[in-house]
Structures are given as structure tokens and as C-alpha cells.
């Protein structure tokens, strides 16, 4: 039984240029944490990421929403969480503030993740393990398919799961091998060229064969120069991505892609405004083999449906700390699978929570084994920090979703 | 000089079924009010509408944003407000909470509107009058065209204004005639059938020839019955609209349109989720002469650009209390004009502020003279309430934007 709800407003100024991008020159990594306390002494912790001020707004909204869960049993809540979540998302007094986006949706993300954490801790299982142990119908009951029935009905989602189930065993080895990571910390925006080059060598030595550079400067020459620098330092076999953090117009994005067409960039990430579905389609149509990745600022399954239908993204970077938590993340994963779009989440959680989810996506939905973003700067802030060995995430064993902060 | 910023968190439970829709069965009309106090004793008041709880979140975000305007002169701020607004919208510490949507964007709406109010009060002009007196370049300087250059460049926006300027005189009579209103208060969701029929007769007697019914029930028979009832009571010449408040899937919306195809509905409003641009396009393609209206929950110019490019809405209901205030409203108006889409704003302000804007849109952009929503329930809460005579808004004469509440 959930007896009370508390929140934590945690903010970590990163400093030294770490974490900087074309927008966030002074990043403060912030978490709005919801904690559900149960009568048997367990605490479920959920996170939403906010990257700065206003974290308290998410906490306040989450407290408001969470009241309806007090005095209820977590097992009972999760047995029909899809309905519960829809009720919270459409609650008439808060809905105008979204709907299904911004502060209220981040609050729902944090609360949803706290529910999954309390549930899996109560069952004594790490999230990935619990997800794999669930039968398909019980899993689908944790999801809300409203507004996407025309793209993915519940029945179709069930088919994705049941079809993939037949070949699950083939993909179980990933648990022992570890899910591959890619290194975002080589190329933060404020780093000097020398620092970036040195980081690329350090990263390769640590076992990474994929890494990402922050671009989106007002000076395209700087962006092109640094992309070339990373490719040169990383060698021709490494996968190199460029991330513009929404700073370009459609035309500027295409221009960057043309100027770097010889660098074999694996993707160009967030080239323009995250609401500009048709702008992304235009970019995707123009830039040929350098593919468009987006999703860290796409707020919900409805916008993802539009991206998928428009063929506007090649890699889906849905973030379980941006959409309505693990439940909506899974809905988007199933929809992406149907559309044949690989899922490479943005890790607002430093990979803590998402490591569970990519394991599940690969094993239970037959999503291709790609790589998961890795960012190390808050490593010591987590109780059970994500650990990489030779560039691969070590499969976590602690019960829960992995979001507990010290 | 702006010396300080205050906020007011105003909430008005409506009661008696007034204001109810398919989502808001117990509506609380709420305003997050930003007030900018100047050294010469004037107060600029801006509004954002929230329809419920969480109003305080918008106030907090607006206070945070407004700090950068203190100790500055309103004339200096407005001389380059497009830049100022872009800076506030992309402020690195709050941007993750949007961007450009939800609580932070509502806060920017309220703050922007407060700036326009202080400016026009300082100049001693009602908003419509000041807008008409501005030269085109000064007006364009109050707007932010970033992310929509591919649909409407600043130069193209200037062309819309300069071309329309040549025929302005022909449209000046609307100031004396009054802008036509349409009556949303005939058909709130909770009203009984009898109440609706009686309201239609009352409305017609007051001079309205256009009115709107709330639909979006889980029982399509109820919706169809009530639509028929309104058409029967209003007669064949009245314009009758139906508003589903986002409650349908794409398929359900098409079904309603088919079932009411003989009723000559003027539009079907918010048939499905406001983020579902391509869903609206699908509905628009299927429902023939009953046109799709949407926009009250469309958060910014980028999403409107997508709607326009996709030919997904026939009437644009942008709300200056949802997008980033009067400035972004005007950007969307200019873009809509270029695409040939009529503008019929949603009035989160009861028509107080929007009456100025539709006058300006018609006279200075040659937008067609249609009608503006009218909702009477908070009439007595405003210092200078919008007044209708024979179904037409009486052109306001008080300085400012009209948003002062008692």
C-alpha cells in the first residue's frame, strides 16, 4: 500500500564544459524525483530530467497528480496502469497545461517511473527481468494506446510481442555480453578542438567504437571543422554522430549535411525544431545517407506517430524521462518496431533506466542491437550507477528501475 | 521603466454546467496574470488561460522569466521584442521544460501580453489602434520568425502587410459596424437538451447567427441527436459548429462527420489530439464540406506551420493566451494569411484581447471578416468587459489590450 508521496528537487551544475551543447552553455543536470513510500517500507523512485531551472514546477505537478495513488496497492495499480495513466494524463484540472507535453507530462513521467520502480522492487526484480517475465497481455495492460489506434492498435502491439517471442532465445546472449554503448562525452560544445581530439583517443582506448559531437554553432565552419577532426581522430570504422540540439533552420541543416557528406556521419541529431515533423521529413529527403535522429524532445506517442507516418526520422530517440515514463516509452518502442525504425533512446537518466529498456526492446521486440548513449558525469550520484566494460553496459542486477540517487 | 513584476493567480469555478465540455466537466476558468509595474505608475497586465489547477506553475515560471525585463524601458523592449521574446523562449535553464509549449510557453504568453499592455497603456491607445498605427518594419520587429523561415520569411510577412495596406480603407468600416461574434454558450456539454434548445432561441433573439455545440461524448448518439437539435432550433441559415475537444480517434471523428453530413455543420472543431497533424489531415480529406477547425491547443508557430503545410486545418483557431502572446499570434496570422487559411481565434480571454486582434487581422492583413467566439460567463470579472450589440463586438476604446481583471 502506498502511504505517502514525497519529491526531491536535485540539481547538479556540471561545470568544466561537460554537458554543454548549442543551447545549454552552462548545463545544470536536474532531476524531478517522485518517491512513493509503501507500508512495507519500500520506496519507489521515479525521475524526470529537466536540465535546469523549473525543476520544482515538475515536482509540484507530480505531487498534485500522485495524490490519487495514495492508499492504493502498487500491484493493483500496475495491473491496469494503462487506464490509470490515461486518467492522470487527461485529468481535467491539469490537462490545459499540456496536454501530454511540458511540465505536466514530465511530472507524469516521473510518477510513472516511480510506480514501475516500486512495483519491481516489491517483486525483487530488476526492471528488464520483470518485463521479460510478464505475459504479453499483462504488459499491454500497463500501456495507453489512445490516439494511436490508427497506427498501432493494441492487437497489433500484441502481435509484435508474440511474433518476437518465438525467437527470444537467440537474443538472450546480450544479457551476458552487455548492451553496447556510445560515448557522448567526447565532444561537448564548449570543449576546445584539442580536448575533443584527446577525448576521441581516450574513448577508443576505453572500447567505444561510436561517439557523438555537439554541433549547432552559429558558425558552420566550426561545426564542419570539428566533425572532420572527430572523423580523423576516430578513424574510418568508428561510427560518428553529430548533434545540433535544434539550432538550425531546415535549410541550415541541409547545408551542414552537404558540407560533411564525405565524413560518413552515422546520423545528424535534432537538426531543427522538435515540433517540425515535416521539416525533419524535408531534411531526411535531402541528406541522403546521413540519417536523421530525433526524439529527445518529442513529448508523446502522438507526435512520434506523426514522425513515423511522415518518414521523418531514421532513428527514434524517445526518452522515458520525457514521454510519460516507461509505459509510454514501451508504446513508442512497439510502434517504432512496427514501422521498422530502430530505437536509440536519449538518456536523460545517464543510461541508468534506459539500459533496462534497450535490453527488453532487443530481446522481446526484436529491435536491432545498436547502441545506447553513455554520459558519465553524474555517475557517482546514483546508488547503483550504470557500469560499462569495454564499451558495453554491464547488465544490472539490483531490483528496481535503477533510478535511485544517493 | 519597469520597476517590479507581480503575478495574480485567479480562478473562477463556473458552475451550473456553464463552460463544461467533453473533458472539463467541472470547469474552473483560471488566469495566470503577469503585472509589470512601471515607474510612471502604470501597470501592464498579461493573461494566460489555464482552465484549472496548476495556474500557480505558470505564475512561477513567468516570474522567473520576467526578471530580465526589470529596470528596462518598455519602449526599448518593444522596439526589438522579437529578439527579446526569442531570448526568453530559448533561455537555457527553462528550455528543456518545453521547448515552446506547456507551462513555460503559457508563462511567456502571459508575460508577452503584459508587455503589450504596458506599452499600449503608456501610449494611451487601445491595442487595435496602436497596431494599425505602427509601420510595417516596427511591427515585424516585435515578432520572432525563427524556425518558420521556410514557410514565411520576414520579407514575405512584410509583403502581406504592404499589399494589404493598399486596401485598408475598404475595411475600416468594421470599426463602426463591430466585429461579428458567435455564441459558444448555447451548448455546453452538461446542459440538458431542453436547455440547449432554449439557449439557441435566446441566442438568435440576441442577434447571433452562429453558434457552437459541445460534442465529444463517448455516446455518439447523444452527439448526433444534439447536433440535429441545434440545427432544427437555429434554422437552416444559422452557422452551426460542433466542438469535440479532442475526444475522438481519427476514425470516430470521421464517423461523426458522416452521421451529421446532412446538417451542414460549418466546422468540426478539435476532432482529435491537437498534436496529430496528419490525423487532422486524414479527417480533413474524408469529411468533405464539413471543415476541420483546430488550434486552441496548438502551442506555437512551428506546429501551425506543419498544419498549414499538411493542409490539415480549414480554420485556424490560434489563441494569444496559448502561443507566446500577441507577438506569436501575429506571426501565425501572417503565416495563415499567406496560406489562405481564415483565422478564427479561440478566446481563452473571453474575447477581451482577441477582439483587438481580429480587427487588426481583418484591416491590416485582409483576413476575411468571419466571426469571433463569445463566451459571457466571466463578463463581470473584467474592468472593461467585451460588449456585444446585436451579435457584434463593440470596438473597444480603453487604452491597453483589454485584459485587466477587477
CATH superfamily of the largest domain in chain A, by name, is Enolase-like C-terminal domain
What does the main sheet of chain A amount to? Answer: 9 strands, mixed
The CATH class label of the largest domain in chain A is: Alpha Beta
Strand content bin of chain A: 15-25%
**Poorly predicted ranges of chain A (pLDDT <50, ≥5 residues)?**
none
Q: Count structural domains of chain A.
A: 2
What is the count of DSSP helices of chain A, taking H or I runs of 4+ residues?
Answer: 16
Gross morphology of chain A is globular
Return the average pLDDT of chain A rounded to an integer. 97
Largest interface: A-B, 60 and 60 residues
CATH domain fold name of the largest domain in chain A: TIM Barrel
Instruction: Note the quaternary state here.
Output: homodimer
**Helices and strands of chain A, in N-to-C order?**
EEEHHHHHHHHHEHEHEHEHEHEHHEEE
Description:
The structure is a homodimer of 406-residue chains. In chain A, strands 4, 5, 6, 7, 8, 9, 10, 11 and 12 form a nine-stranded mixed β-sheet that branches. The first copy, chain A, has 406 residues and is an alpha/beta fold. The longest helix of chain A is centred in the N-terminal third of the chain and has 22 residues, at 102-123. In chain A, 41% of the residues lie in helices and 16% in strands. Chain A is globular, with a radius of gyration of 20 Å. Chain A is built from 16 helices and twelve strands. Chain A has helices at 55-66, 74-79, 81-89, 102-123, 127-133, 136-140, 154-165, 168-171, 174-177, 193-205, 220-234, 250-259, 277-286, 301-310, 325-339, 354-365; strands spanning 2-13, 28-38, 43-49, 179-187, 210-214, 239-243, 267-269, 291-294, 315-316, 372-374, 388-389, 392-393. In chain A, helix 1 crosses helix 4 and helix 10 runs parallel beside helix 11. The first copy, chain A, folds into two domains: 2-125, Enolase-like, N-terminal domain (Enolase-like, domain 1); 168-393, Alpha-Beta Barrel (TIM Barrel). The interface between A and B is large, with 60 and 60 residues.
Amino acid at each position: 500500500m502506498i502511504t505517502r508521496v514525497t519529491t526531491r528537487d536535485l540539481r547538479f551544475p556540471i561545470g568544466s564544459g561537460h554537458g554543454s551543447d548549442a543551447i545549454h552553455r552552462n548545463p545544470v543536470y536536474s532531476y524531478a524525483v517522485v518517491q512513493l513510500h509503501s507500508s512495507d517500507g519500500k520506496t519507489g523512485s521515479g525521475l524526470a530530467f529537466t536540465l535546469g531551472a523549473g525543476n520544482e514546477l515538475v515536482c509540484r505537478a507530480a505531487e498534485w497528480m500522485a495524490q490519487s495513488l495514495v492508499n492504493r496497492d502498487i500491484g493493483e495499480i500496475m495491473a491496469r496502469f494503462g487506464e490509470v495513466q490515461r486518467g492522470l494524463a487527461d485529468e481535467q484540472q491539469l490537462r490545459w497545461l499540456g496536454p501530454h507535453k511540458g511540465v505536466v507530462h514530465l511530472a507524469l513521467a516521473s510518477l510513472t517511473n516511480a510506480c514501475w520502480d516500486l512495483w519491481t522492487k516489491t517483486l525483487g526484480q530488476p526492471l528488464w527481468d520483470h518485463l521479460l517475465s510478464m505475459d504479453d497481455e499483462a504488459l499491454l495492460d500497463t500501456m495507453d494506446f489512445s490516439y494511436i489506434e490508427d497506427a498501432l492498435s493494441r492487437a497489433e502491439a500484441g502481435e509484435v510481442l508474440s511474433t518476437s517471442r518465438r525467437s527470444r532465445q537467440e537474443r538472450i546472449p546480450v544479457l551476458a555480453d552487455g548492451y553496447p554503448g556510445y560515448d557522448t562525452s567526447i565532444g561537448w560544445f564548449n570543449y576546445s578542438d584539442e580536448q575533443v581530439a584527446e577525448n576521441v583517443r581516450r574513448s577508443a582506448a576505453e572500447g567505444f567504437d561510436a561517439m557523438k559531437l555537439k554541433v549547432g554553432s552559429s558558425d558552420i565552419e566550426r561545426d564542419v571543422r570539428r566533425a572532420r577532426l572527430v572523423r580523423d581522430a576516430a578513424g574510418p570504422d568508428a561510427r560518428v554522430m553529430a548533434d545540433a540540439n535544434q539550432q538550425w533552420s531546415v535549410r541550415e541543416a541541409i547545408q551542414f549535411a552537404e558540407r560533411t557528406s564525405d565524413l560518413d556521419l552515422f546520423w545528424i541529431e535534432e537538426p531543427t525544431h522538435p515540433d517540425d515533423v515535416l521539416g525533419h521529413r524535408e531534411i531526411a529527403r535531402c541528406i541522403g545517407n546521413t540519417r536523421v535522429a530525433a526524439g529527445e524532445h518529442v513529448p508523446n506517442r502522438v507526435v512520434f506517430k506523426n514522425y513515423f507516418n511522415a518518414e521523418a526520422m531514421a532513428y527514434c530517440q524517445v526518452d522515458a524521462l520525457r514521454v510519460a515514463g516507461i509505459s509510454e516509452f514501451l508504446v513508442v518502442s512497439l510502434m517504432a518496431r512496427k514501422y521498422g525504425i530502430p530505437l536509440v533512446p536519449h538518456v536523460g537518466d545517464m543510461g541508468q533506466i534506459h539500459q533496462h529498456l534497450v535490453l527488453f526492446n532487443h530481446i522481446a521486440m526484436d529491435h536491432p542491437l545498436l547502441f545506447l548513449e553513455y554520459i558519465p558525469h553524474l555517475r557517482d550520484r546514483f546508488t547503483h550507477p550504470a557500469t560499462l566494460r569495454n564499451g558495453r553496459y554491464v547488465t544490472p542486477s539490483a531490483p528496481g528501475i535503477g533510478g535511485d540517487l544517493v
